[in-house]
């Protein structure tokens, strides 16, 4: 049975930590380097419900996409939910490891899993990693851009996304002419508003991401209307755009375990950690 | 008939510009000080569809909540939609005036109009303006906090908000236990995530605002779950939370015009400038 | 007849906007991209007297050296002279375009025109643009440095400059020994105090620029006196050092119009926009 | 038996956290709020040898003067000694609490304990806390300043300090004329170089602190020699100047436990955590 | 005969160093505190010609308005003119003392001497020092504002200033309508462009200062033309606006010497240290 | 006999000023460029006792390792010891020149002299200068790392250093297991705490430097204990680690003088300028 540093080394080949953003906090958050690891759980958020699932399932290593502490902390006291997470994990001997923007930029990465759910073909990164000698085919980078399996209207694409992504209460919203035909789609798992100009420059018909607020969405939509060029927008739950990566990652680790002769059980969390629990439709 | 500076002076008594945030850009964006003003239009966003409505309606002064240029510009050339807005307004002799965070903090202000739509009683500011000698009753400030007309579950409150607010495609979403009973509600028109800790400290049962992204919503919800105290969350379209202010402001200006003996026609824009045009429900 | 974007494209080949300083604000300030352009006026300053000249002359495009808004603005309301300029231009369908530090650094540029007026031969930039693959002869850059047609005393050089530059009330002042012989001269149109050390290093006998204040002029003169090496200084009106560029630029655009078969009338403004209107001599 | 929050509340009355410096990280680092506390250990440094002592002694709460994480961390993984400290403490159910600059500034505080060891009389703060309505007698603040029990030479004072402070390998060094008579002494537990100018202004004959480097010590000594006024300097091990506070703090908590009827055992760590383990004398 | 510290103490009562700007460098630049002082020389600039005058005149203390090192230096080696100044002064036992923005803000201060030359009556500061308990009559502060002895045109005022101020080659220039009548005048010795808005707000008819560059002068003049309100501008040599202070200061120190029974000779430098040595008129 | 600029040119070939750190202040602090130089004195600190030695010895040029003004000054008045140093030097015609971080990084540099005293063989820089085309053998850089002549325990190494370095009152202290065997030693003259991580990465058994404070020494020692790898620490007086450079530098300049045929006497200061004058041992 491998120990923690063995499994972390394997994960680091999939998502090299040095490719993370400067402001990011990836890597191992807690755990003993020499502890044996027999069961691994993948999840989007390191929140108490996921930790409970890990404890109940006898998990040794929890791997999440979101950092527990993105900004540094000077305390892990159990009077906050994050401190409680640390205490529970250490009490039960469970390590926590984070692959965040390094997983976003990997090949395959977070947006590949999202693109795969939507059936996108011939995709390439929105923002390639430059320079990246370890990536001769140029497939590393943020976001993905490719062709839909068939052209469809924006309204139909919203329904398509709602059917293919993990279900959440808030559904999928779209901005732009509902009857516009969409052939090429850009996607970015998580909060992708910083890539709006890049998507426009690449000429995508539509862009699906999460956490778009009023001002970026309004400015992008008005610019598209003013110039007659630019993407329609789709916005799904942040969690729904990133959870597909958990399945993908679990498959990658399972394959490595097989190659390495490790007796490792790899699972994906079933908890929906999108905070929005209910939704009310408005009559228009 | 009043001239532009007369009407602006009146608006400045309602929403004193010196109460705006330091980073904000309120006041008159274009227009001739001495131009006569016979017709005024209120809207949330200074976008082309609203300008078309103003031109078509023979409006002399457009008053919006959002600034056209929140950050300074060195060009108003008509090759962007904002420059096109400036050219159209000047061509048609229409002035543009902005009341943004000064309207947020006024008494009554943006969140009063929102609270009124939801039937909130006995409300007071979430963040009072301090020190404010011009406000002896302490009613100026950001956000509002008060009691619902009757206690209701969080799910029922989401339906209530969806029924009372101006309709948009995205509807209203809520975070927290749908069956939780809500008696007191905090509201903040527009993007209110910066007030989350304040709402928690005040002990509100729920908080309705706009533009809540995954991480603030998740952290607030987990903290509520961890401690057993803290607000449920509701999120509506940014535009829907601020449009009620237009009606309120139009009423205030109409009253001033009557007192001043001005022959002034005051209107509220009917254009929905929320960018989200369609929504797909997910089956769970 | 060309439209605005045609003419701007031509100007951008003369003064590529990407060669401007980072802090500068060059490009089109107002105007419709598709408006036909039949008459162009060049001037140093985008001030009301120049705009009046443009309106009276039926001009379609005003090109100035100085930006209207060097720092960004959030308002163009007509209660300031700059806002009035914007309103007048848009009302009369006149576009405004700025070529500032990109014109300073071009070949030929602002200082070439100044050097030409003074009869400077064999000149080269004071501060070459590096790296500039588009400039194999190395003639792009700030300022110019060359030989006077004949050696002359500093006092005579001041008279020479006063005779050759566009006349302004303040005349030309000089620092250093009036009887010193000057053979080589450095020039920089506009405020050139930042190049004083560069001029010293190049070994020029004198340096003509504008806007020299007491401390830089005193320190440079004392350093020259202390070491026995370094330039004498000459200071003319800022406007007088930059207006020669207008003639040069008008000639360049006229040539392009001829090549392109455009029916374009190109003029140079006759208004002196140096603010200093009168001067009193002191008896010593 | 009290729980953790009871004991922390008591400690916060002794060393109010809001009096700590802005850059400091005081408070509870790990532990369960509701855990019963029967045994408390005070120490200067939260290092592994002290944690071993706490584990071996069945301690429930370790209180240290130095923070474990002065700057924020995004990981507590056990591959560093600090992460190992966190894992050991949580594994053994031991809470860690820090009182740093709030203990420095308290009445009595860290420098009171140091002053007491040296027999200093009638002492007052070097830098009083201003404004401090909770301290009408003005005894809160950094450092202490008072009279030695009897005047002595600087050399004798160094021997006196060496005899009275907890023993460390490096001993006590002094700067200034060894025969100078010292009547008044300023002290500051820990690294006190920032108070050198304050000590000079107060007119103390000598100043004892820790971690004085060459340049501050040299500049202060030369200034004293140049002006004939100013303090001699004494430098002891950082740990030796702060460990006396542990005894003082233990006494304070024991008194509170007695008043509160708590069955609490309070201990002081016996480990010398000064890193310097040996010293070689130089022959001169 | 007083020693240096006696004379400096007297000067500090006239121009308290703590009233200087934060960025300024006032006080004693070189000299021995105990050196006897029998002869004092006042000048505007600490330049070599003034030092030669001091050496030739057997001066013990040179007091200048401008700092030798406004920004800190790490060398006074004699390979620059400033280092040469330091070497000459120390070699000849001459102290150097600077009263800069503390003299600007004093009562009487630099602008009082300038106002006196121009015959200004009933003057008060442009920018009062606030709060200044040591100045109950409110006469301390930057710049002065008062009435001309008789109203005169701007052109006549320029001639008046040219006749009354110390003569320099560059003369006096003015911006605005030469025939405009001026009744009230604001003045600021030295570079006064930062006070332009203050002068406008106070309603002065004209403002005389030094070192006005094109952009501030142009913007101020255009704003005056646009609104029909605001000051005409006059610009004299920086040195000419500050040299009158030397006479005033010499008189103040002479009076103190008489009161103190000091045998002190006080002189004013006769060197013109304005760098501009010649001027050429332009024909228009 | 050479003049000052001749000798400085020679020193600049030994310690090129452009290799100094950005924040450093190296070069000539005072002196006349053309003054003849017959006698040179090397010392660590430019303090009054050293200046007295220079005056008494008829020295023309004092070369020190430490800057007199590391941060810029606006005054050299003789009311501080630094101003007194400047006055004394100029009065007696003595120049002062500083070689600081340029001497640290030279080949041979400050740490070479220190390594030589300790008998270190086959040494190389801790932090090589990169890129350094003038150093093909890669010997320039901060610190040195090499083998001890024979392995010894840490306690024996402390005694060895105490015997070989210039004697100071404080002696040498060491952190780590006194019985640990040390084969390889890293050294850095002066305050070397910033190189601790570099020393660890290079795998040195011990590191000797100066001015190590509690927190860096404690964290480095705990990290060594936690991982079982990393250096023991030794700390000597800052002065004692840098004075060996004076002998080395004197030898270098003597050789240059011989080659150049200069009649130059080169000395090394005998004053101990370490501020610590006495030390008291603690009994344990």
TrEMBL record, chains A, B, C, D, E, F:
This protein's record includes keyword Metal-binding: yes
Annotated positions binding a divalent metal cation: 65-66, 104, 238, 242
Signal peptide range in chain numbering: none
InterPro entries to which the protein is assigned, alphabetical: DUF34/NIF3, DUF34/NIF3_sf
GO annotation, cellular component aspect: cytoplasm
Gene Ontology molecular function terms on file: metal ion binding
Superkingdom of source: Bacteria
Keyword annotations: Metal-binding
Gene3D superfamilies in UniProt: NIF3 (NGG1p interacting factor 3)-like
Family note: Belongs to the GTP cyclohydrolase I type 2/NIF3 family.
Assembly: Homohexamer.
Protein known as: GTP cyclohydrolase 1 type 2 homolog
Native source organism of the sequence: Streptomyces alkaliphilus
Classification of source organism: Bacteria, Bacillati, Actinomycetota, Actinomycetes, Kitasatosporales
């Amino acid at each position: 049975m491998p120990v923690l540093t063995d499994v972390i080394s394997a994960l680091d080949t999939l998502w090299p930590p040095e490719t993370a953003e400067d402001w990011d906090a990836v890597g191992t958050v807690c755990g003993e380097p020499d502890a044996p690891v027999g069961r691994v759980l993948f999840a989007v958020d390191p929140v108490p419900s996921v930790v409970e699932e890990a404890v109940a399932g006898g998990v040794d290593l929890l791997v999440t996409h979101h950092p527990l502490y993105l900004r540094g902390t000077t305390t892990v006291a159990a009077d906050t939910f994050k401190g409680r997470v640390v205490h529970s994990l250490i009490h039960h001997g469970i390590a926590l490891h984070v692959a965040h923007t390094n997983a976003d930029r990997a090949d395959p990465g977070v947006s590949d899993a999202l693109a795969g759910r939507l059936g996108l073909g011939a995709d390439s990164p929105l923002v390639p990693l430059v320079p990246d000698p370890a990536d001769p085919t140029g497939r590393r980078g943020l976001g993905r851009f490719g062709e839909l399996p068939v052209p469809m209207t924006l309204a139909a694409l919203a329904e398509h996304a709602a059917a293919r992504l993990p279900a959440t209460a808030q559904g999928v919203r779209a901005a732009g002419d509902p009857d516009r035909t969409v052939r090429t789609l850009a996607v970015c798992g998580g909060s992708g508003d910083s890539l709006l100009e890049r998507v426009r420059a690449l000429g995508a018909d539509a862009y699906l991401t999460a956490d778009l607020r009023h001002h970026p969405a309004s400015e992008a939509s008005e610019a598209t209307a003013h110039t007659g060029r630019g993407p329609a927008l789709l916005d799904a739950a942040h969690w729904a755009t990133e959870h597909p990566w958990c399945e993908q990652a679990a498959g990658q680790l399972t394959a490595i375990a097989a190659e390495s002769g490790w007796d490792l059980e790899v699972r994906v969390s079933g908890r929906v950690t999108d905070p929005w629990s209910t939704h009310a439709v408005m009559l228009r």
